[in-house]
Design brief:
The chain is mainly alpha-helical. The chain contains 7 helices and 4 strands, in the order αββββαααααα. It has helices spanning 2-6, 73-81, 88-103, 110-135, 149-169, 176-194, 210-237, and strands at 21-23, 29-31, 33-37, 68-72.
Length: 269
């Protein structure tokens, strides 16, 4: 089966990556997985009204290999039982990323392959941890006039420490998550530098006050730069922000499944 071979008989869910192929005592090849439809074969099925498209924009037929990804049976059941959590574009990204990932394992020994697959799972855990942290700190979504600059400063320094810690755990700095961490690290560094000559804890929170205006502008830029990489990461991870408003998100061209991260060079609020 083409779908299974392309996936190397490994579940395509990045949170799972279970090896699914085995051989019976009679020597017959079997698998604890299936080629799962991304958009259901029938309109009444999971994501049945959606269309999967090729990179050139042309629609994929329901029975085409491009409309299927290899999933173990528990993961197949999960994606079909919760369409909102597993939309079409997310599954398309799973398929694409998994096939690229396992192709990169060709020629590696077993230990190297297992380490790479393990890092994929860990990076998703770390990504969701970071997204939850951002969503739980109000400097990411409160109006500047309602903020206390010294508390924002403490939270940003906490974020700086968190990013540094996560970067130390990611061995592939060129991975998507590694690039996101680098981009946020750069944004935090520039925020700190922009306010380095101001006593942040003494800023008067009044519109028009020069130091407060500098603080507000630096914070605005920081939010934009963080969300430019955090919003696509959240989409990729199937994560939904509960506090950061939709209107704060950067504009999208509507093709999130084809997004590629680009390299860029406290107190809980």
């Amino acid at each position: 089966m083409t779908v299974a071979r392309k996936a190397m008989y490994i579940c395509s869910n990045p949170d799972c990556l279970r090896v699914t192929g085995y051989v019976t005592t009679k020597g017959k090849p079997r698998a604890i997985a299936q080629a799962a439809h991304i958009a259901a074969a029938r309109g009444s099925g999971p994501r049945g009204k959606d269309l999967v498209r090729m990179p050139d924009g042309s629609p994929v037929s329901r029975g085409d290999e491009a409309n299927a990804l290899w999933l173990c049976m528990p993961c197949h059941g999960r994606i079909d039982a919760d369409e909102e959590a597993f939309p079409t574009e997310l599954l398309v990204a799973w398929k694409r990323d998994h096939e690229e990932r396992v192709s990169g394992l060709v020629g590696l020994d077993l230990e190297q392959s297992l380490l790479r697959l393990a890092e994929v799972r860990l990076s998703h855990d770390h990504a969701r941890d970071l997204l939850q942290w951002l969503d739980g700190h109000r400097f990411m979504y409160f109006e500047d006039s309602r903020e206390f600059p010294d508390q924002v400063w403490k939270a940003v320094l906490e974020l700086r420490w968190k990013i540094s810690n996560l970067r130390g755990r990611v061995t592939d700095s060129e991975s998507q998550f590694g690039v996101v961490l680098a981009a946020i690290d750069d944004a935090v560094h520039e925020f700190v530098v922009a306010l380095s000559d101001i006593r942040v804890n003494e800023i008067t929170v009044v519109s028009g006050y020069p130091e407060f205006e500098r603080f507000s502008e630096a914070l605005r830029i920081l939010r934009i730069r963080i969300l430019e990489v955090a919003a696509p990461l959240a989409h990729q991870e199937g994560f939904r922000f509960k506090r950061i408003p939709e209107n704060a998100m950067p504009k999208s061209d509507g093709n999130a499944a084809e997004f590629r991260f680009q390299s860029t060079s406290g107190n809980k609020k």
